[in-house]
Amino acid sequence: MTESTLDERGRLTLPKELRERYGERYHLVRLPDGIKLIPIADDPLEALREEFDGTDKSAKELRDEARDGAISEAGR
């Protein structure tokens, strides 16, 4: 785990090794017990292509699975 502190102007500096691994742009997500930083890819479309490279499923099959998973998760 890595620690970082806000400066007097409220800025948070991420350590170099994290910036090199995840980049410099993030979405901030509020959670009940804190926040989460989600890296934003420099080229989001390329990131999606890489994520799904090699899959044998069609876009419709992937959408259907995502929908079914969300419905299942919401029903809990």
From TrEMBL:
Give the species. Halalkalicoccus tibetensis
Q: Residues in domain SpoVT-AbrB?
A: 4-45
Q: Where is this region: Disordered?
A: 54-76
> What is the protein name given in its UniProt record?
AbrB/MazE/SpoVT family DNA-binding domain-containing protein
Coiled-coil annotated residue ranges, if any: none
Q: Does the keyword Hydrolase apply?
A: no
Keywords of the record, alphabetical order, are: DNA-binding
Offer an example of a GO molecular function term for this protein.
DNA binding
Where do transmembrane segments lie in this chain? none
